[in-house]
Specification:
With 231 residues, this protein is of the alpha/beta class. The protein has helices at 12-23, 39-47, 62-71, 99-125, 151-170, 199-212, and strands at residues 3-7, 27-32, 52-56, 79-82, 131-135, 177-182, 221-223.
C-alpha cells in the first residue's frame, strides 16, 4: 500500500487530495490543526475503511511536527505533500502591510515545508517513491509577475520554490525527488467562486504529474499540466 501525508487536509485541495488518494487505495495521513472540527475530513475517514488517518498538526509548531514524525517512525511515506498554506491579509498593498502578517505567511508557506522535510526525511527515504512535493503558486514566479501586489504571498511562494530547489540538491544522494507544483486557479475558499478550475480537476492533474515525475525533474517548478514554469 502506497502512503501519502497531506498537510492542510481539512478542506479544499488538501481534502480532495486525501479523498482521491484514499479512493485509489492509498493510506493517507491527513493533517490539519483541528481534526475534531473538520466535518468533511471526519466523514471521509469514516468512509475510508481505515485508509484515512487524521492527525492534529499545526505546521508552524516545530515541536508538534517532530512529535508526529516520531509517532510515525518506521513507516515509509511515499509522498510528503505540503499543501497547507495561507494567502495573507485581504486588502494588503504597498504601504499597508503589517510586518507581523508577512512573517506569519512566511512561517506557514515557506518555513513549514522545510521543517516537514527535515522531520520526515527518513520516512520518505525509506519509501518506494521518495517524493517531496509542495503546493506553490504561479504567483511565486518572478518571471510571471506583471501585476504586482500580494507581497507576502508572492514572496513566500518564491521562497518555498527556492527551498525546494535546495532540497533537491541536498537530498539527491538519498534518492529523494523534490518538486513544487502550481495547482492552477482553483474554486476553493482561497481561490474564490470565480476560479476556472474545479478542485477535483486540479487535484486529478496534480496527481497525474506526481505519478510521472522523475528524479531528473527534481528541483523543478511544475504546472498542473506537467509543464515547467519559469522561476
Amino acid at each position: 500500500m502506497r502512503t501519502v501525508l497531506v498537510t492542510g487536509a481539512n478542506r479544499g485541495i488538501g481534502l480532495e487530495l486525501a479523498r482521491q488518494y484514499a479512493t485509489d487505495g492509498w493510506r493517507v495521513h491527513a493533517c490539519c490543526r483541528e481534526p475534531g472540527s473538520a466535518r468533511e475530513l471526519d466523514l471521509l475517514q469514516r468512509a475510508s475503511g481505515g485508509r484515512v488517518i487524521p492527525h492534529r498538526l499545526d505546521v508552524t509548531d516545530a515541536a508538534r511536527i517532530h512529535a508526529l514524525a516520531a509517532q510515525l517512525a518506521g513507516q515509509p511515506i511515499d509522498i510528503l505533500l505540503n499543501n497547507a498554506g495561507v494567502y495573507g491579509t485581504q486588502g494588503e498593498s504597498f504601504g499597508n502591510l503589517a510586518e507581523s502578517d508577512w512573517i506569519e505567511v512566511l512561517r506557514v508557506n515557506t518555513l513549514a515545508p522545510f521543517r516537514m522535510a527535515e522531520a520526515f526525511v527518513e520516512h520518505v527515504a525509506a519509501s518506494g517513491m521518495k517524493l517531496f512535493a509542495t503546493i506553490s503558486s504561479k504567483m511565486g514566479s518572478i518571471d510571471d509577475n506583471t501585476s504586482g501586489g500580494r507581497y507576502a504571498y508572492r514572496s513566500s511562494k518564491a521562497a518555498v520554490n527556492m527551498v525546494t530547489r535546495s532540497l533537491a540538491v541536498d537530498l539527491r544522494g538519498r534518492g529523494i525527488t523534490a518538486v513544487v507544483l502550481n495547482p492552477g486557479w482553483v474554486r476553493t475558499r482561497m481561490g474564490g467562486a470565480g476560479a476556472p478550475l474545479a478542485v477535483e480537476e486540479s487535484v486529478g492533474r496534480i496527481r497525474a504529474v506526481l505519478d510521472r515525475v522523475t528524479p531528473a525533474q527534481s528541483g523543478q517548478f511544475l504546472d498542473h499540466d506537467g509543464s515547467v514554469i519559469p522561476w
